[in-house]
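Usage example:
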Amino acid sequence: MAEDLVLDTAIRDWVLIPLSVVMVLIGVLRYFVSKLMRSSQLPDAKALKEGQVIIRARNLKSGANFIPSKSFRARRVYFTNEENGLLYVPKDQAQNAQAQMFSDPNMAMDMMKKNLSMLIPQSLTFAWVNFFFSGFVAAKIPFPLTQRFRAMLQNGIDLSTVDVSYVSSRSWYFLNLFGLRGLFSLILGEENAMDDTQRMMQMGGFGFDAARSLAVEKDSLDIIQHDWALPKMEQRAEEVLRKLLR
Amino acid sequence: MVGAAEEAQLNRLETQVDNGGGGAWEYLCHVRKLKARRPDKVLKHGLSILNNAKARSNLGAEEWTLYEQVAIAAMDCQRLDIAKDCISVLSKKFPGSTRVGRLEGMLFEASGAWADAERAYERLLQDSPHDQVIQKRKIAMAKALGNIAAAVEYLNKYLEIFMADQDAWRELAEIYVSLQMYKQAAFCYEELILCQPTDPLYHLAYAEVLYTMGGLENLQTAKKYYASAINFTGGKNTRALYGLCLCSSAINQITKGRNKEDKESPDLQSLVAEALVKDYKKKAPAKLPLVTNTLKSMKLIS
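Running the assembly step on the lines above writes:
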C-alpha cells in the first residue's frame, strides 16, 4: 500500500457528482410526493377527547392540593368511577384497542402510504446504485482514518489492503442517504426535512395506546392522598404581611 | 397570557416601528405569537407591507398569514372594506379552505349579519366538526347577541370535548358569575386553579365566588383562598386584602358568641388591616380616614 491509487476524473464526473445530485433530487421529489399523498385526516372526537381527558387528569393530579378536598373527591369520582368515569376503560375494550387500530382502514392506508413513499424510492435507488456503481472506489477523503471506518466507507469492496480513506460508491450512497438531512432542511424548510433514519424509527412505535395511558392516569389518580395546601397558606400570608409591614 | 418581558419587547418593537425604525414584519410576527390584540397598529403596519409589492413578495408563503392577520385586525377596527379585500384575495388563493371560510364568517359577524354568519359556521362545522375556533366563534356570537343561555350550552358542549381549554373555562366561569350561578362558577374556578395552581387571580376569583355564596364553611374557605392570593402576590393585591377583611368580619359575625376555640388566626386579619392602612397612607392619603373608619366598623382595627 505504498503508492496511492489514482482515481480517474471520469469517476468524479460520472459517479460521485451524479450520485449526490440524484440523491438530493430524489429527496425533494419524495417530499412533494408525500405531500401530495398525505391525506388530511380529521381527528376523531374520541381521540381528541382522550387526549384532553389525560391533560385534565394530569392537572388534577398536580394541582390536587390547591382545591378543597370535597371538590377533589368529586372530581376523582368523576374521572375514575367504574361505571362511566372518563378514565375508566372497560376490560374488553382495552384489549381491542390494538386490533381496532389495525382494522381502521384509514390508519392502515395512511401508514402504507408513508411506508411506500419511503420504501419504493429507496429500494429503487439502492438497486440502481448497486447495478451501475458497485464495487469500485469513488472518492478519497483527504485525511487518514482507522480500520474501524472500513465498514462504513468501503461497503461493497472486500479488500483489506485498500487504505481506509478511500470511499466506495455504495458507501457514498449511504453517506448521502443519511447525511443529506441538513441540506433538505435548508431546501425544504426546517420541519419538512424528515430523513430516512427518523422514518425508520417511527415505523417501530406507531400510534399511542390511549387505553393504556388512560389506565395509568386512573391508577395514579386513585392513589393520590389529598392534602389541602390552603390552611398553610394563611400562615404564609401572615408571614408575607409581617415582612411587608416591617 | 403574556409575560412581562415579552410584553416589554413587544412595546419596544412597537415604538420602533411607529417611529419609522423598520421591523414591521417582526412586530407583526410578535403580535401573532403572543396573540396580542392591537388591531390599529397591526392594520397600519400590515397594510403598509401589503401595499408594497416588493415587501409583500419578500415574505414568501407568509404573505397569506399576513393577509389573515390584517383581515382580522381590520374587522376589529370596523374597516370592513379592507377586511373584505383581504379575504377575497385569500379565498381566491385557497378556495374551499376552512380557515378562509372562518374569516368569511367573521366578516358576516362584523357587519352584523348574524344569520349569515351562523349559516356559514354551521356549514364549516359540518366539514370539520371539531374546529375549536369555529365553535368558539359560535359561543362568542351567542354571547354577543345576548343569548347567554345558548352561550352556556355551547360552551358546555365545547368543554365536554376540549376539557383542557383554560380560556373556555374562564369564559364559562365569568358567564356563570354574571348569571349568579355561583356553584357552577365555583366549579369552573376550581378547574382553573387546577390548570394554574399558582395564579393568584384565579384564587382571588374563586374566593370571591365562595364569599358571595356565603355560609360559614364557604366563608372560611374563601378566607383561605384570599390568604393564598395575598401570599402569591406578596400582599400587593388590594382586592385580596379587602376580601380577607370582609371575610373575617363576616366569619366573626357568624361565630359571635359561639364557640371561641376555633377562631382562627386573629393575627391575620389585623395584619391585613394594617397592610391596607399602610398602603393607603402611602398611595392615597386622602382616602385614609375612609378606610380606617370602615375597618373600625368591621372591628378589625381599634
